[in-house]
């Protein structure tokens, strides 16, 4: 899936899909809200991974539509 723009509390970011992972890249000079800032990657901190079930996410419908429209991707 192509990257797409999102806003989190008015902070501009993009969602990228990398294999079985999604990366959220902030493209804004504003700071993330505290809840997001705690999970943001920084040189001094650890890498945080958040697990979620794809089958129950909103993304599964989008992925199914893409696969239905593009049989060669299956």
Write up what this structure looks like.
The protein is an alpha+beta fold. It has one domain. The chain is built from two helices and three strands. It has a three-stranded antiparallel beta sheet, with no helix packed on it. The relative contact order is 0.14.
H/E element order:
EEEHH
- Which descriptor suits the 3D outline? elongated
User: Residue ranges: pLDDT <50 for 5 or more in a row?
Assistant: none
Helix content: 10-25%
Task: Determine the N-to-C terminus distance.
Answer: 13 Å
Supply the number of helical segments.
Answer: 2
Q: How many beta strands in the DSSP annotation?
A: 3
Strand coverage percent: 25-35%
Q: What structural class do the secondary elements suggest?
A: alpha+beta
Rg for CA atoms: 15 Å
Overall mean pLDDT:
81
The main sheet orders its strands as 1-2-3
* Integer tally of domains: 1
Biggest sheet overview: 3 strands, antiparallel
Summarize the structure.
By secondary structure, this protein is α+β, with helices and mostly antiparallel strands.
Keywords:
single chain, 74 residues, alpha+beta, 3-stranded antiparallel beta sheet, 26% strand
Layout of helices and strands:
Blueprint: E1 4-8, E2 11-18, E3 21-26, H1 34-37, H2 59-69
Antiparallel strand pairs: 1-2, 2-3
């Amino acid at each position: 899936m192509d990257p797409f723009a999102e806003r989190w509390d008015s902070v501009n970011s993009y969602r990228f899909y990398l294999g079985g992972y999604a990366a959220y890249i902030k493209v804004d000079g504003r700071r993330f809200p505290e809840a997001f800032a705690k999970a943001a990657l920084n040189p001094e901190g650890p890498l945080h991974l958040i697990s979620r079930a794809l089958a129950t996410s909103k993304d599964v419908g989008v992925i199914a539509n893409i696969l239905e429209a593009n049989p060669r991707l299956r």
